[in-house]
Amino acid sequence: MKAGVEAAAAEIQQKYANEREKRLRPEGDAQYIDLSKSDKFKHFQEDPWVDPKAAQAEVPDYCKYLIVGAGFGGLLFAVRLIEAGIPASDIRLVDSAGGFGGTWYWNRYPGLMCDVESYIYAPLLEEMGYMPKHRYSYGPELREYAESIVAKWDLKDKAIFRQLVKSATWDNDHEEWVVETESVGAQGSQHNIRAPFVILASGLLNYPKLPGIPGIENFQGHSFHTSRWDYAYTGGSPTDPSLVNLRDKTVGIIGTGATAVQAVPHLAQWAKKLYVFQRTPSSVDTRDNHPTDPQEWQNKITKRGKGWQRERSDNFNARLAHASPETEVDMVSDSWSKISTYCALIGNASEVRPEDIPTYVASLHAQDFVRAERIRARVENIVKDKDTAERLKHWYPTWCKRPTFHDEYLQTYNNPNVKLIDTEGRGVDRATEKGLVVGDKEFDLDVLIFSTGFASPSTGNGSPALRAGIEIKGRDGADLDKRTREAPGTLHGVISRGFPNLFWPGPLQAGVAANQMYVLDQLSTHIAYILAKAAAGVDAKNKVIIEPTAEAEDQWGLRIMSMAARGAAMKGCTPSYMNSEGGLDQIFELPVEIQMQVARVGVWGKGILDYVSVLEQWRAEGKLSGLEVSVAH
């Protein structure tokens, strides 16, 4: 980079640090309200979409493969198991929701769409022979598509809905899991499902969080979280965002992240008055969504033949991880695929040694400066009020928060009924019976909408038990959550010693990507291979027991640690769910030997393509290296 650009980038980097300081809170993730423990807000987790009269499948006493979660992750695991030769009749999916779809079941707010190109996001497009309606699919289509997958693989009667998994305990005597569930809405209605194999596919962003604003329980107006949109109050429906009931309402929405960026334009169209309360602005680039052109689909996108979706996905991942030359063709060619610095979060194919860290981090900032300045200029060019425009500019590197993309969000602030309330990093000061207070001003509201996101996937060292909300006890009573927090270890990021036949798809010690569906597809394929290979040649009457060796876990942890330097740029990021509200920076204050231990629980630092290559090579050897496989008679 030119010296002038580097100097300007250094100046901007100091501004980033100043802005970060405004947003740091000593309580970290504890600043949010635990909905399950809140009498006032626990109803925010209730299911507004379920038909209470619909018949629910009977909870079985036994199944061979129990998948926790019926979103796209759960469906991918089921499909890959079936493709590996496991009968669909041996599989059950259990979910607290009333239907398939996972995040696309719960989230139905107006404007909901995928932020990754649907041609690489929607799984199994080749197998389904399906062409997405838009380049970036809307929520209703993705829910319908999930149902189409269910129909194709005959999974409709394999799902057990409205069942909250409470615990999973390994039965040492019978060598199988005992999974305790409770019927949603029927406290005390508990069931035990015995299953030799359990797969956790509960998702990454599945626990809505609320800010712990002083006095928030005193607000007497209507309120809801965007993950449980209340169309009965706003008017409209998931397929018709005509929020007609808001015409005479003053609406407040807290949050300006990925959800708000999509919902705010619809609220602005219908509300009498809309206040958008902002702590940290998003980086908002162009989206350019449009209907899929059938001719382009046939002649350009799918023309490459079998494997086109994997090839397109690999190309996207390669560009984000610097795994291919800049001159290589960009198959996706959108605002995502042109981000050259997101590798600071998801992994970098380049070699980075500890002594290279200062140069490496400086290079990332210099590269990111060009994009960030363009995004900030975009705000100035769109938002007419200069003060509002200045407050909508993001002051942090691209990799610190998930970037957003939209073509109507910034324009919304030109509407006379829309007002940005920038809290300058503090967040809302307090709530009253009538509304919210920021500084010395109180804003009266009819309805308060929380667009405040979800609990961080990194909480508890990325504990799969915590993320699934399940108490998991393995062999001899070992606690998975405690193990993950104190002495974590896995093989490939999918299974831990002491917890036989229990699998999950990272992100602890696994590869990560901007497109989570790609990760789920690769890891469901990998786990299905392990299960099928381990059972090959074993009498079906016998039980197969699978777990990693202590040596394999240790070696895998050392490999993760050896790549940790690539994550150095995350230090100093503005608080967000990516870094547990800044809490992860505390790691860098610890003694070096402890930092090294913590580094063992990171992600695969060389990027998702390198990680997948390692898994594919391991499978090609066909030895199940690092796993202990035994047969119980």
Automatic annotation (TrEMBL):
GO terms for molecular function: monooxygenase activity. Transmembrane segments: none annotated. Keywords: FAD, Flavoprotein, Monooxygenase, NADP, Oxidoreductase. Pfam families: NAD_binding_8 (PF13450). Gene3D superfamilies: FAD/NAD(P)-binding domain. InterPro entries: FAD-binding_Monooxygenases, FAD/NAD-bd_sf. Its cofactor is FAD. Residues 282-310 are annotated as: Disordered. It comes from the Eukaryota. The keyword Oxidoreductase applies. Belongs to the FAD-binding monooxygenase family. This is Flavin-binding monooxygenase-like family protein. It comes from Rhizodiscina lignyota.
